[in-house]
Amino acid sequence: MKLRLNRAVVVTSVGALLAAGIPLATLSTTSAAATKKPTYTIGVQGPFSGSDANYGDYIIGGVELAINTANASGKYKFTLKAEKFDDQGSPTLSPAAAQRATGTKNLVAVVGPAFSGASEAAAPYYKKAHIAEVSASATAVALASGSASNFMRTIADDSVQGKADADYLVKVKDVKNLLVISDASFYGDGLATVVAADAKALGATVTTQQIPNVNTGGGGTTTEYAPAATAIATAAPGAIFYGGYSPDFGLLLSALSGAGYTASAHVIMSGDGSNSPALITSTSPASAANGVFLSEGAAGKVNFFSGKLATAYFKLTKIKASVALYAAQAYDATNAIIAALVKTKAPKTVSTQLREQVVANLHKVNFKGITGTIAFAGDGDLKNDTGTSAISEVENGTITFLVNQG
Amino acid sequence: MGFEHFWLSGFHQIHVAFWTYFAVGLQNGAVYAMIAVGYTLVYGVLGLINFAHGEVFMCGGFAGVFLTRGVLGERVGSGWGSIGLILAGILIGGLVSALVAMGVERVAYRPLRRRHAPKLAFLISAIGASYFLQTLAGKEFGYGVNIFPGQVFEPGQVAFTMFGTPIHTLTIVSIIAAIVMLVVADRIVRATRLGRGIRAVSQDAETSSLMGVNIDRTITITFILGGALAGAAGFLYSLQSGIVQNAGTEIGIYAFTAAVLGGIGNLRGAALGGLLIGLFGSFSVPFAFEGNVQWTEIYTFLILVFVLIIRPTGILGEKSGRTA
Prior knowledge:
A: alpha/beta, seven-stranded mixed beta sheet, five-stranded parallel beta sheet, 42% helix, B: mainly alpha, two-stranded antiparallel ribbon, 11 helices, 2 strands
């Protein structure tokens, strides 16, 4: 009876708080006080400020949606809350964010890091603290390795995305002569390498080039884009693939259009790092982004939230579920962590032992998430990569889903 | 790719697109030159490198960006409107940067000068000022977010065709603005009473103060002059690349290099050095190994080292510490 009453109170207050637009972190503390269950923190490491902050917002929305559902259900012996650890997506800032996370008292596991380079830089800290990191978006192939890894991800890696991109360029767009540009970041270089190798294997002539990025700690200089674009426009490859992130891809597109090389006359494509509305605002004129193809590392479509979930996500974040890249993967990652926690004794305080148990249990989870079956191989990759990648195109300043490329 | 083929393809690229590389190089060089003058003038009067000068440039860029966005919104400027906006952007960018430079001098340098602090102390406080401005801009406008100005003229607008190569309006605007402002700055330093003060202080501060030169005022004016040029450069730069909170660091290093290449302390040297660095950077892109654009920086700095070995005072520098 008492329990039911509390549930009712909690559910009503959830509704009231949601309506009032109060951030959800406060919510879980309310219910914790009411039930005296232990409160566990799920850390979310990713960019929450800087030019890629939108990715962090998409992801934490998915995490909070899963946490709220779990807390409101009342069937668990613990209460959860999410806490942000901002790394701006940068490998340089990532170790500090990881150290803040590992030093957080009741932290049981982390969703993230969001970016591959940041994940690479954070890995030693989480490994040492035996904390599970379940990334919703870090796709660099090299991140998953070993067995019983504490790094896992709910998204297919770049070998899947890169292959799909190469297939789309060579088979669908009939590209014969491809220039693959890397931004020299851990993620961009990895994806570019896969695309170059796969396109070559499909018979295209591939040239590679590196333009170190300016905005993700690559040490490049903005004034280098104009002469580089001149060189590209002179060589006039049939198509360009860019491995890198939207702020720098925007600068490159601006310079290319200035040099007379446009997506309307040629094929220009990039991966999930550039697949964000921020690409359009990073490009001047914004119309220079029109016609650019963008892929996503996910198996399936741009977003998996539909019906009630999509509505709940929008209510929570004020972000349309259809643009919230990785939100669904973050939702599944959070549910995987919850599933792993359920199998523990849910002690009052978080110890290394509990964290280790979470890692071990995560390797045993097997459930039907909204993005597909969530079960991790020893190296942390999904056991079941369906091997497709969502291809979109920028049409009049809007990223529009085109097709699933397998 | 074979080595021989690599060089051939580099020369082939230049053969095909010589004038485009030339124009892009001059456009970048014009911006470097205008910033370099600020480094060189301050070096002349204070004998130290103003490490916050890159951030002074960045502030002017933001001022110009917000002005053009405010006026134009989503519209694209044309005709007299474009010309007016360019002049206004240069003016506002220059004004804001001049004020920032003046502030930096007041807060970061003057108190140290009063107390006869060692040179190292100036260096540290300059770095502090630089971080302060960069972080402030990051807090206000976002870290690593490129903000583009309103479209002052049609993007990619071609002014005329030279030897079959389309030359962009932006290139012409940048070069003309740089030439006009550099000539004006040169005249101020060489032919006015004010400039005589600057030159006197840079030769011998103590003696010039005995001769009736107001040192504080001269130094302030030097910062204002250098700041105004950097701010105008910030606006012109933003038309091409947008402006971002850390733009001052990367561009500042190039401009500082330009000042050293031309002969630090020498205004005309700084202008020449800026143009040369811009051209080196542009023409070395086709020779980047495996297309890695960062090779251009290696080439540029190799050339710098060679020039300095042959002429340690820089191309036009006679002896360090002279502004002339």
